[in-house]
Amino acid sequence: RFIRVATAWLRFLGRLAAPTPGATPFATLLEAFAASMHHERGLSSPTIGKYTWFARQFCQWFSTQDRLFSALTVDDVDTFLSLQGQRWSRVSGATAAKALRAFLRYAEHRQWCALGIAAAIESPRIFQHETLPTGPTWPEVQRLLEHTNTDHPRDIRDDAILMLFALYGLRSGEVAALRCEQLDWAHEQVTIMRPKQHRSQLYPLTRAMGTALLRYLQDVRPRCDRREVFVTLRAPWRRLSAGALHHLTRTRLAQVGYRGQHYGPHTLRHACAAHLVACNLSRKEIGDHLGHCSPYATRIYAKVDLQGLREVARFDVGELL
Question: Low-confidence residues of the chain, pLDDT below 70?
Fold first, then answer.
């Protein structure tokens, strides 16, 4: 703990010489690929970061083969995906293949490698709506929020964050990027920036949510020049990262005895959607609340609508004949 606090303090004073990171193999290719996804394809920052990460992993592996990038073959890509498949899930493997197809398609366009490699990349088959959205039950969510309803500064901050995840169904990046000017106290509204849809969405500030945010802003949040709502409680002040929000949610769920398969903020988003399904809201209303740009993204929650599925099972087709 002393090393962690001393390191943060010396970095804040500007007296800590950070080690120079090593050069990334094929860094020029990766930078050009990221720029093309932003300027030409208009992809969101999370998608660009994810695709670039998988491309960087491949470039680091290929750099150990002591060959030029122009000598890349399909066998090299298959070997890489096969090696990573030993520790990645099928979903991660499919995402990696999708990212490498985009990366190598761009490389082919720039004539950095031979044609046809991207089209030949195969990935694990993922069936549409193969998995169920998993998350805590609504009583478990209520118990989670009761657990953070204390006077401790960290609990006050975490309570507001968890409410945004569970009640509004926000993504971790949307909560991390929430800024003070997005809170409209006069009209009791909050504006959420949707990076995936490149638009903003207006939500009403409920009494419980407004009370939790005010309590955090007035009693806990450090007085600093950061404009993000949620920042670290200790200097140097900085916005909470997506990793910090994942750790926060995972720790809080473990404290109330949750034993699900996943523990991140997205599990609370699924819990919010499942609760809306249980309240008999339509798919359109659920999709609007979650910020889905397409109704197809909301169809997966029909698989957890047990009451609706029972009604389908009781339907007698013979009556139509």
Answer: 19-23, 127-133, 295-297, 299, 301-321
Q: Which of 98, 143, 196, 226 is catalytic?
A: 196
Q: CA nearest 109: which of 123, 121, 124, 119?
A: 119
Nearest-CA neighbor of 165 among 256, 240, 255, 265?
A: 265
Candidates 73, 74, 94; CA nearest to 85 is: 94
Identify whether 296 is a catalytic site residue. Answer: no
Whole-number Å distance between alpha carbons of 132 and 294: 19
Could you tell me which residues are beta bridge partners of residue 189?
A: 184, 204
Helices of type H across the chain = 2-13, 27-39, 45-63, 74-84, 90-109, 138-147, 153-168, 172-176, 207-219, 242-255, 265-278, 283-290, 306-314
pTM beyond 0.85: no
Q: Which of 61, 64, 67, 72 shows the shortest CA–CA distance to 104?
A: 72
Alpha carbon distance 93, 90 (integer Å): 5
Annotation marks residue 314 as catalytic: no
Catalytic residue from among 101, 157, 171, 252? 171
Which member of 266, 270, 275, 289 is catalytic? Answer: 266
Question: Is 216 designated active site?
Answer: no
pLDDT digits 0-9 by tens, 15-32: 888 766 666 788 889 999
The residue type found at 224 is C
Concerning whether 171 is annotated as a catalytic residue, the answer is yes
How far are the Cα atoms of 134, 142, 275 from residue 210, in angstroms, in the given order? Answer: 28, 17, 21
Report phi then psi at 40, rounded to 5.
Answer: -95, -40
Q: Which residues contact 4 (CB under 8 A, 6 or more apart)?
A: none
| Most distant pair of Cα atoms in the chain: their distance | 82
